Amino acid sequence: MTELKSADIHLIQRLIPHRYPFLLVDKVVDIDGYQSAKGIKNVTMNEPHFQGHFPGNPIMPGVTIIEAMAQTAAIMVGTELGLEDKNMQVYFMAIDKCKFRRMVVPGDVLEMKLQTTRGKPGGKVWKFSGVAEVEGEMAAEAEFTAMMEMPKA
């Protein structure tokens, strides 16, 4: 049995270029190679999207939930492939079978469980499926395809 890896915020920032206010993952745990991982997002009222989405009724936008899932996938792959400080860029190519089931609000801990369905070391195009949950209740699910690219040195 292989030991599962994890990524704290310091490693995350070495793997993906996202920063406040668009860094949407606090840590990634249970990284099993580039096959699966679980991202954690502590949802707080201090996030800028809550000012307008919606005043008096703060709800995390669905698109940011899917973005957090994609960031989790990039961190999983980057951790396994040793891509720290390599300036990896990740771009959405498709989002499929996306459904929202529960509102995510300040105080929630969003857990994103991701699996790789297509992709291999050295490949640019990867496909993932995942669910985002709060306290075991599904908030969102989606499949998405992304291109992972390294800048030329």
Automatic annotation (TrEMBL):
Enzyme nomenclature, EC number: 4.2.1.59
Reaction(s) catalysed by this chain's protein: a (3R)-hydroxyacyl-[ACP] = a (2E)-enoyl-[ACP] + H2O
Major location (coarse): cytoplasm
Active site: 53
Primary enzyme class: lyase
Location of this chain's protein in the cell: Cytoplasm
GO function terms (MF aspect): (3R)-hydroxyacyl-[acyl-carrier-protein] dehydratase activity
Name of a matching Pfam family: FabA
Alphabetical UniProt keywords: Cytoplasm, Lipid A biosynthesis, Lipid biosynthesis, Lipid metabolism, Lyase
Coiled coil regions in record: none
Gene3D superfamilies: Hotdog Thioesterase (3.10.129.10)
Similarity comment: Belongs to the thioester dehydratase family. FabZ subfamily.
Known function: Involved in unsaturated fatty acids biosynthesis. Catalyzes the dehydration of short chain beta-hydroxyacyl-ACPs and long chain saturated and unsaturated beta-hydroxyacyl-ACPs.
Protein name: 3-hydroxyacyl-[acyl-carrier-protein] dehydratase FabZ
Organism per entry: Cognatishimia coralii
Annotated gene: fabZ
